[in-house]
Design goal:
The complex is a heterotrimer of chains A (321), B (540) and C (233). With 321 residues, chain A is an alpha+beta fold. Chain A folds into 3 domains: 51 residues, no CATH class; 116 residues, Sandwich (Immunoglobulin-like), CATH 2.60.40; 93 residues, Cytochrome c-like domain (Cytochrome Bc1 Complex, Chain D, domain 2, Orthogonal Bundle). In chain A, strand 6 and strand 7 form a beta hairpin. The longest helix of chain A has 34 residues. Chain A starts with 12 loop residues before the first helix and ends in a 6-residue tail after the last helix. Chain B is mostly helical and 540 residues long. Chain B has one domain: Up-down Bundle (Cytochrome C Oxidase, Chain A), CATH 1.20.210. Chain B has 17 helices and no strands. In chain B, helix 7 packs antiparallel against helix 8. Chain C has 233 residues and is mainly alpha-helical. Chain C has one domain: Up-down Bundle (Four Helix Bundle (Hemerythrin (Met), subunit A)), CATH 1.20.120.80. Chain C starts with a helix and ends with a helix. In chain C, 35% of the residues are buried. The chains are: A alpha+beta (321), B mainly alpha (540), C mainly alpha (233). At the A-B interface, helix 1, helix 2, strand 7 and strand 9 of A face helix 3, helix 6, helix 9, helix 10 and helix 11 of B.
Chain lengths: 321, 540, 233
């Protein structure tokens, strides 16, 4: 019989760090569980009722137990808090050199798109040793992208983009689950994450054919090129690229920067902002310009908007997140 | 040890034997019994659902149920157990029966409202059962939008309405208890002389009044959204599904304390009696209930660490969650200290109670794992969470409920159950429970998501253990039920105070009590849990 | 027991499970206030949603408020305040056991309540005619026309702001829940009027009337919040 696995694989340094915290938690828990249970059992035996005439003497309430019983747990849990919060914040900020992959959740599959436009369904190939950033949204209900071997999970919410990142450090195949209940075939919304060598990844990324047969779900429409075409044909190029007399701000290379708004506020030009501006252009008016943009809601679908975003990202000169 | 006294022939049970005399009763004790019967039925329905999908989960392939049926069963299990068993069990049955008796009142402040609460509970239950009969509901008990409001193809409106209606039963019961505890205490029954069961009921009632209306309106908005297409949480109309989660957990996290606080009350009573000691640190135990109720309102976001809420909000929710742990730890330490140099009798209620402390301890400590942000990200929505809340809800609340039911059973019905079989039941339930839920911690840490119909083969050993354990737990529950029910047909009379416990319900009322509870005016002149008072050891 | 003898004297309207009339009165009053507390939380859920979406979609909220008929809302506010005054008068007369006057003031309260419903149904009807009920008959084109109709010449908008349907969903949910509370109030009022006519109350026992007054004030106060939030700002 195969040995039963009782802990998940450790596929990244981060997973190792989470495990460290986890073992601290287990230590605290085991200590208190054993201590309390041992006391209960000991008292139950030692002070069992000998006769119905037993009249134990009352114990006088002391403050010591209450003080120690608050202070010691308080210290122990504050360690958990700071440790957990530190790891959590570390895990939230993707490095700048991350490869960005678009994730779309849909009942009941994962649609994934690589920077060069290559698409996959439920399988995700990534190179080892490089941070991977996922930009995720959903076409219908809430899903949750879960990589147990990396100890990472993030909800995929319709109507907005969420992000998560991870850095694979061991080649291999890992589980990919949907963790948020999403309907009838929730448990089939699973896939595999393949961590492969750098060269193998390059080869995989740029090959349309595997073993002489077409791979079912490969599509090399380059989102950047597609986005550029949409950008050019929808007048965005005429308005937003800084031509003389343009009635709109030049934003073509501004992705990832803070933008000034009418009224003195600033807003980060990120995926959510670009998509929202295409749909509801007059919600945020750029400083010094009229509210003249028309909405692309109904004209562009989600994929096309993602392509425009990909194009803007490719042109971005911003060097700070 | 003189049990030869005759059972009083006139009591609340014999006060009328027509169906009408039960269905139109305003006697708090009879209403408690009505809740007991209704709740047992709901519990059996919810338990059967659990048994069926546990069977399915024994192997990683689909073999017993289709995915749709599986989803509907775990949803039904959740909705029925949470809203129709866990939340109303202790307040509805034991609370109704005991609150007036323990404080020396003739009844709750609003007896007719009390009966109305039971009917509201039944009406809500009927809607929910109707939803099940008409094809079920598959959203999970959390009704997350936009799945529930737009995409699900099942009876969300009916079930949502059922839960909405039942909420008012909790609200009105809570209102009734607060007024009763404030205004109906017998002369001499000061706040610091109240049994801890009353303190627990009081804290629970506050949460009921402040929390339940919020889930009521939230579910109503979901029902509107589904019925009319309003779109308050629908992203297609600009709505925010995460707002739904905030509103839902604003109630549903405190609801956890609605379920467990009354259990704390029960445990304090049984522990004091079966070790013949005053609860150590009475004031701390009493006020920790209120502290838990208060802080519990500000921790809901710990259900949403991966939901895209702001990181800084998550930080606040995390730290507040640990703070709830402190008063909870205080309770556990004080209960343990109560045993020290006591006179401990391991009767059936005491076995349940000590089982409660152990299991609730594990449930509470694993709660710390989930409050830890980085660890939560990994464990959220996995079997670890399932195991954690079952340790709190079943290992905690259900064990306390059974402890209380055994403890006050003679008071309610005048009969003593077979002690031997009651102990066997308690022990089998305790071990069955651990077999069922402990493996789920490991499956969860290995990454198995909850609500999975089919799953990766590496999780199968744990699920198999779980299913086996559930079988034993079912047997234990069966033993417990048969033992209790068969006692009703026994001849003997249990006496007024078979456990030799303190408290007005034991010492100043008959078993079962008569319709007006006390025959003589009640005046309280002793502290709670005064086990040195020789009067409690003399037979009635 | 140290109760004074006047306390323990058993009045016919004292329920058997209370020790004294004073205990009964205090208990009932506390119960009513707790009921109000849960009502606040009930509406609180919707106010929370209102706040979140108002911050997310300020323009939709501005346009939504602009498209309301402030005069109808204002009239309704005055009518409701008037009905609060009349219920105060009813309680006042109950204190002096003036049965006919109590009934008169109750009738006036209900009359004012009916005026409120009349105006509210004109408003709802208007929204329905302009196809501005989300989910049921919402029409972007008509909604835009209607909103522009309310806006000044130089403030016309070319398209609907994002989230405008949320504003209207919440408008209907909030005013609808408020109206439901008034309907329940009408039912209670008829019941209490019946009891009053039968002579169930006297100068020292009229809790139903007093507590109905509190309930009616509460419903009124909810409207006092709804009016500025939905019509003015």
């Amino acid at each position: 019989m195969k040995a039963v696995k009782t802990s998940p694989d450790v596929a990244s340094t981060y997973a190792d760090q989470v495990d460290g915290l986890y073992y601290y938690l287990i230590g605290v828990s085991v200590f208190f569980t054993i201590a309390i249970c041992a006391l209960i059992i000991y008292f139950s035996v030692r002070y069992r009722r000998q006769s119905d005439a037993d009249r134990p003497a009352p114990t006088k309430d002391g403050k010591l137990l209450e003080i120690l019983g608050s202070v010691i747990p308080f210290i122990l849990v504050m360690i958990m808090f700071f440790w957990g919060a530190k790891l959590y914040f570390d895990a939230r900020m993707p490095p700048k050199d991350a490869i960005e992959i678009l994730v779309t959740g849909k009942q009941w599959m994962w649609k994934l798109q690589h920077p060069n436009g290559k698409r996959e369904i439920n399988d995700l190939h990534v190179p080892v040793g490089v941070p991977i950033k996922l930009t995720m949204t959903s076409e219908d209900v809430i899903h949750s992208f879960y990589l147990p071997d990396f100890r990472k999970k993030m909800d995929v919410v319709p109507g907005k983009y969420t992000q998560m990142w991870f850095k694979p450090e061991e080649e291999g195949a890992y589980n990919l689950f949907c963790a948020e209940y999403c309907g009838t075939e929730h448990s089939l919304m699973v896939g595999k994450l393949y961590v492969v060598g750098q060269e193998e990844y390059e080869k995989w990324l740029n090959t349309r054919w595997v073993d002489g047969a077409p791979m079912a779900n490969v599509d090399t429409n380059d989102p950047v090129a597609a986005g550029e075409e949409i950008w050019d044909t929808n007048c965005a190029a005429a308005c937003h690229t800084g031509k003389a007399g343009a009635i709109a701000p030049n934003i073509v290379d501004k992705f990832g920067t803070m933008r000034d708004l009418e009224g003195g506020e600033q807003i980060l030009m990120d995926e959510n902002y670009v998509r929202n501006s295409m749909q509801n252009p007059n919600e945020h008016i750029a400083k010094g310009y009229p509210a003249a943009m028309v909405s692309f809601k109904g004209t562009l679908n989600t994929t096309q908007m993602n392509q425009v975003i990909a194009y803007l990202k490719s042109r971005s000169t911003a060097d700070s997140e | 040890m003189n049990d030869s006294a005759e059972q009083p022939t006139y009591n609340y049970l014999t006060a009328g034997d027509t169906v009408k005399s039960w269905l139109l009763t305003v006697d708090h004790k009879r209403i408690g019994v009505l809740y007991l019967i209704a709740m047992t039925c709901f519990f059996l329905v919810g338990g059967t659902a659990a048994g069926l999908f546990r069977l399915e989960l024994a192997t990683h392939n689909p073999d017993v149920l289709s995915n749709d049926t599986y989803n509907k069963l775990f949803t039904m299990h959740g909705i029925i157990m949470v809203f129709f068993f866990l939340i109303p069990a202790v307040p509805g049955v034991l609370g109704n029966f005991l609150v007036p008796l323990m404080i020396g009142a003739k009844d709750v402040a609003f007896p007719r409202l009390n009966l109305a609460s039971w009917y509201i509970y039944m009406l809500g239950g009927s809607f929910t059962l109707l939803a099940v009969l008409l094809g079920g509901i598959d959203t999970g008990w959390t009704f997350y939008t936009p799945y529930s409001s737009v995409y699900a193809d099942s009876n969300v409106i009916l079930a949502g309405t059922g839960v909405f209606i039942t909420g008012f039963s909790s609200i009105l019961t809570g209102l009734n208890f607060i007024v009763t505890i404030h205004k109906m205490r017998a002369p001499g029954m000061t706040w610091m002389r109240l049994p801890l069961f009353i303190w627990a009921q009081y804290a629970t009632s506050i949460i009921n009044i402040l929390g339940t209306p919020v889930i009521a309106i939230t579910l109503l908005l979901v029902v509107f959204e589904r019925a009319f297409g309003f779109g308050i949480f629908d992203p297609a109309r600009g709505g925010d599904p995460v707002l739904y989660q905030h509103l839902f957990w604003f109630y549903s996290h405190p609801a956890v304390y609605i379920m467990i606080l009354p259990g704390f009350g029960v445990v304090s009573e049984v522990l004091a009696c079966c070790s013949r000691k005053r609860i150590y640190g009475y004031e701390f135990v009493a006020f920790s209930s209120l502290a838990i109720a208060a802080i519990g309102f500000f921790v809901w976001g710990h259900h949403m660490f991966t939901s895209s809420q702001s990181e800084y909000a998550a930080l606040i929710f995390s730290v507040l969650t640990y703070l709830v742990g402190i008063p909870t730890a205080i309770k556990i330490f004080n209960w343990t200290a109560t045993l020290y140099k006591g006179s401990i009798e391991l009767s059936a209620p005491m076995i349940y109670t000590l089982g409660f402390i152990g299991l609730f301890l594990v449930g509470g400590l694993t709660g710390l794992f989930l409050a830890t942000m980085a660890v939560n990200v990994h464990l959220h929505d996995t079997y670890f969470v399932v195991a954690h809340f079952h340790y709190v809800m079943v290992g905690g609340m259900m064990m306390a409920w059974l402890a209380g039911l055994h403890f006050w059973w003679p008071k309610m019905f005048g009969k003593m159950y077979n002690e031997f079989w009651a102990r066997i039941g308690a022990v089998v339930i305790f071990f069955g429970f651990n077999f069922t839920f402990f493996p789920q911690f490991i499956a969860g840490y290995m990454g198995m998501p909850r609500r999975y119909h089919v799953y990766a083969p590496e999780y199968q050993p744990f699920q198999m253990l779980s299913t086996t354990g559930a079988f034993f737990m079912g047997i234990g529950l069966l033993i417990c039920m048969v033992t209790l029910i068969s006692s009703l047909f026994k001849k003997g009379y249990c006496g007024r105070n078979p456990f030799k416990a303190t408290g007005l319900e034991w010492n100043q009322a008959a078993s079962p009590p008569n319709t007006h509870n006390f025959t003589a005016p009640v005046v309280v002149d002793v502290e709670a849990y005064d086990y040195t008072d020789e009067r409690i050891y003399q037979d009635a | 027991m140290s109760h004074a003898s006047s306390d323990t004297e058993h009045k016919p309207y004292q329920q058997h499970h209370f020790e004294s009339m004073q205990q009964q009165t205090q208990a009932t009053l506390l119960g009513i206030w707790l009921f109000m507390a849960q009502e606040i939380l009930f509406f609180g859920g919707m106010f929370a949603a209102y706040t979140v979406y108002r911050i997310l979609y300020p323009q939709a909220w501005a346009m939504g408020a602009a498209s309301q008929n402030v005069w109808l809302g204002m009239t309704n506010t005055i009518v409701l305040i008037g009905s609060s005054v009349s219920i105060v008068m009813a309680v006042h007369e109950a204190r002096h056991n003036q049965k006919m006057k109590v009934l008169k003031w109750f009738a006036i309260t209900l009359l004012l309540g009916s005026v409120f419903f009349g105006i509210k149904s004109i408003e709802y009807g208007g929204k329905w005619d302009h196809q501005m009920v989300p989910g049921l008959n919402w029409n972007d084109h008509h909604a835009l026309e209607t909103i522009n109709h309310h806006l000044a010449e130089d403030a016309q908008i070319a398209e609907l702001p994002k989230g405008i349907q949320l504003y209207y969903s919440l408008y209907f949910a909030m005013t609808g829940m408020h109206a439901l509370h008034m309907v329940i109030g009408f039912g209670l009022a008829f019941w209490i009027m019946g009891k009053t006519a039968k002579g169930c109350f006297n100068e020292e026992y009229y809790p139903h009337i007093e507590y109905f007054g509190l309930y009616w004030h509460f419903v009124d106060v909810v409207w006092i919040f709804l009016f500025p939030l939905l019509y003015l700002i």
